[in-house]
From TrEMBL, chains A, B:
One of its GO terms (biological process) is Golgi vesicle transport. Pfam families: TRAPP (PF04051). It comes from Microcaecilia unicolor. The keyword Endoplasmic reticulum applies. Its main location: endoplasmic reticulum. The keyword Oxidoreductase does not apply. It comes from the Eukaryota. Keywords: Endoplasmic reticulum, ER-Golgi transport, Golgi apparatus, Lipoprotein, Palmitate, Transport. May play a role in vesicular transport from endoplasmic reticulum to Golgi. It is found in: Endoplasmic reticulum; Golgi apparatus, cis-Golgi network. The gene is TRAPPC3L. This is Trafficking protein particle complex subunit. Belongs to the TRAPP small subunits family. BET3 subfamily.
Amino acid sequence: MAMSRPTNRRPENHKIDWHLPAISCSASAHNMSRELFVLTYGALVAQLCKDHEADEDVNKYLDQMGYNIGVRLVEDFLARSSIKKCRSYNETADIIAKIAFKMYLGITPSVICSKESGNEFSLVLDKNPLVDFVEDLPVGRSSLCYSNLLCGVIRGALEMINLPADVQFIQDRLKGGDVTEIGITFLRKTDDKKHRRNK
Amino acid sequence: MAMSRPTNRRPENHKIDWHLPAISCSASAHNMSRELFVLTYGALVAQLCKDHEADEDVNKYLDQMGYNIGVRLVEDFLARSSIKKCRSYNETADIIAKIAFKMYLGITPSVICSKESGNEFSLVLDKNPLVDFVEDLPVGRSSLCYSNLLCGVIRGALEMINLPADVQFIQDRLKGGDVTEIGITFLRKTDDKKHRRNK
């Protein structure tokens, strides 16, 4: 399927530098309420569960689909948020939570830096809108990461700006967790020269 | 998969009467920008195309998924729009275009009453956000109704408020149409007493 970039909001040099968040989200013209999205996402997960017996396969497909979406979405994000560079992983994690999540899902997770190494973060969602209409995981699907698309989206978007990362659910309310928590581990060490040049 | 109704916005008596659109959309807390939805929808269509060879089958599944979504979404819509009753098919079509499309997709199609019978309407979309990132139909998929989920959503929502209707694409820009046009044919005649009682 030929998918095009929206030509009217192509950012310049988005792969090179992003620095100092000049937070001016021109989002209003693009807004919708998220219930249609949440229900459509439910239909996608149900379809994948129909197609694949193993939860691990469904999780993998959701992550891969998310990755492909993130690769495209990052361009839209950089164009609309006017963000140029990030100085640190800390700032990057903050921008994901406070600008990207707000823009695309209408929520703002809190950010926790989980290790002294400074490259591991958690996004903690008090409420996960993707499961608004979901009471339980489907029967026999106890290993399903229902919202795994989100991890893929974050991973794909970060990779496009030269910040490879592992992204996965650490806690999930659907699995009895107190909150929903997404872990992001940036794979380059912060003193990596190449990373410094590109981040 | 157990899907729940969001308990905090359950409308009362929504199946009985809806009359006089008191248009107060309390949508802000639910807002997101639609790019993530549009790309996720693209992933869903791609998945269905992978699963089913015949375009007609993909169209049917999209319509059916949409129907299931519409059946659930109508409750959210009635609760948030505060709409109680519609006096006529004309008013119903107007509400779909001016309130529901605005709320869930951020666009407002124009409405054309296409026949004197008063039960056939067209929603004309100058711009269809669902195809924002789509340049062409996939190769060999010339009969695909890419956005067919929308027809199902409208059909499902209308059926839940006792207004059965045929809903389908009449024109589609992806198929060379000048605009994108969704046709809605209400199946009960306007002088049908049962319909009058219930609409």
